[in-house]
Amino acid sequence: MDAAPYQRIVAEIRERITSGRLRPGDRAPSTRQITREWGVAMATATKVIAELREQGLVDPKPGAGTVVRSVRRKREPDLSRDRIVRVAVEIADADGLPAVSMRRIATELGAATMSLYRHVGDKEELLHLMADTVAGEAIRREPPTPWRACLEYTLRLLWTVCRRHPWVAEALSMTRPRPMPNLMRYSEWVLAALLRTRLPTEELLLAHLNLFGHVRSLALTWQSEAWARQDTGLANDEWLDGHEAEFRRIVGTGRYPALDHLTAQETQHTLDQTFEYGLRLLLDGLERRLGCP
């Protein structure tokens, strides 16, 4: 997805600052200058200035407008893309993806917020680096050769990554995949296994996307559940218990006989069980499509 206009302007001004073309104490472009230079509305220009302040790049200065923030000269910690990504992963695992910001990471590292942009372009790039890192760390061996065993291994491994790090689901896209080397290994394994089935070429990508979609859709559900637990303090079964009476009242009207039958069984399934059942259905269907006995 293309960046919003204000984000592109912020990125350009940030590049001027990090490259030294705008130095500490220099006047940053005013809202009026932004409207003229980039041809945007005053509301967009105001949003640009607010975002630059949020990122710790500029400060308001009475009588001078907005100026590039002056940073006290002190020894900066040794920074690298790897350190930034690992701290971001720790924050996301502990507090969720919304808690990840350049300012929070800089605070954890004891660095200036601006210094992070020398290694990571923006939060979107950071998210993809985070996802690719944890996906790579999960890989311990190559998958087995038989096509079904290979698919089971690969998809279960990706599901494990999403279970350990619920925020990873946001970095996975079926329609706009990003070039991420470790996650591309998963795709390579799936496609290589499908090639061994002699599935018609025109169906390879369709099969791959359906298998991938099974993992991602449940991973997004798992992410939502993780957020809900964090926000409410209630596990899924505790939340259901709190709404059981209202469900039974509606079902008891007689308008929902199938739901009434299911509710009477009092069966519940975990997302792990749902994942395994769906994976088995997909692979059984693929075997039938291939004419396997």
From TrEMBL:
Residues 3-71 form the HTH gntR-type domain. Gene3D superfamilies: Homeodomain-like, Tetracycline Repressor, domain 2, Winged helix-like DNA-binding domain superfamily/Winged helix DNA-binding domain. Keywords: DNA-binding, Repressor, Transcription, Transcription regulation. InterPro entries: Homeodomain-like_sf, HTH-type_TetR-like_transc_reg, HTH_TetR, Repressor_TetR_C, Tet_transcr_reg_TetR, Tet_transcr_reg_TetR-rel_C_sf, Tscrpt_reg_HTH_GntR, WH-like_DNA-bd_sf. SMART domains: HTH_GNTR. Residues 101-120 bind DNA. This is TetR/AcrR family transcriptional regulator C-terminal domain-containing protein.
